[in-house]
Write a structure and sequence with these properties.
Layout (H helix, E strand, L loop, with lengths): L2 E9 L4 H15 L3 E9 L6 E3 L3 H4 L6 E6 L4 H9 L3 E6 L13 H12 L1 H5 L5 E4 L2 H9 L7 E3 L6 H6 L4 H7 L4 E6 L8 H14 L4 E6 L7 H13 L6 E5 L3 H10 L2 E4 L8 H8 L4 E4 L4 H5 L3 E4 L4 H13 L1 H19 L1 H11 L5
Parallel strand pairs: 1-2, 1-4, 2-3, 4-5, 5-6, 6-7, 8-9, 8-11, 9-10, 11-12, 12-13
Helix pairs in contact: 8-11, 9-14, 12-15, 14-15, 15-16
Amino acid sequence: MTRIAILTPSVTTGDAVSNDVLGMYDVLKGRGYDVRVFAEGWALDKPRVWPAPQVEGFLKKSTDILIYHYSRGWDPGLDLLHELKCRKIIKYHNVTPPDFLANYSSDFAAMCLEGRQQLVPIARSACDLYLSDSAYNMRELVAEGAVESKSFVVPPFHHVDRLHSIEPDESVLNSCSDGKINVLMVGRVAPNKAHPALIEAFAAYHHDYNPNSRLIIVGKEEVRLAKYSTLLRGMVKRLKLQENVIFTCEVSDRALKAYYAAAHVFMITSEHEGFCVPLVEAMAMKVPIVAYSATAIPETVGSAGLIWEERNPYLLAESVNSIISDNSLGKGLSTLGWRRYQELFTNEQIEHRFLDALGSPL
């Protein structure tokens, strides 16, 4: 029987790459393959995760398969990719350019620089397949030497099914159901997400259109990015938004469901996204989207949101106001988002694309 090793630097909860790893594992396990997840570090009990060095003892035949999830600089992953004598598949999630992090964390910036530098040897490693979360990611791989005929777009597996299956946290839902307009952003609190632009756009909406509004920023805050978090809170204070901007940090799935259920608009101003799973969550939860056009964002959203190339906070504020004041616009975007999710981004649709791409190696 073909053995399949899924390799990634780390596996944890509430992480887009980890959710994709676990989704692949479930699909392949369900198909009867002998599949294991290997990582350097992990923070979950099921499925069992094996130490990365043990992958060499697991993949014994030339017909076995390594699936390496590439999302940051990691020398052990690159070494195994070159040393193993089996079939190899890359899943590319993109790597944040280090310039975004240089002013906030030298450690993060160095890790991202290493990740960007590893793009060329990975693209030219003569793998059997190159899978990318988005066409944006695939273009990067092909530009650096990946064979285009072996390259496919396969969106990442996600936990939307779980969000649909659970009840929202009642206390969170009640706290947000006080008549205020809720503008939501979900994603790690990191410089590439461009939260200052988000806060600036919300300030324009709050002060010029609707003072009965709040911005909810849901996402993990890293200790090593404390300087960035401090900058954001200082900006909130200067703009007199202390009572109207909420940083939730990392939350439970039930709390996340509640924030989506209470949201009137999902707004994102990120400057670098290889795919952006929260956009899929917003579409699946029927929350209208407003965003700047950057990297993979327009590709993920399509026509299911108001996406602007001009980086103008007043344009975003007017977009939010239009959605709130024009019920037909808000409902129309919600419907378009739900339809796009159903057609392209359900886990079932992703499974079909994943298995179709793997047809030859398997």
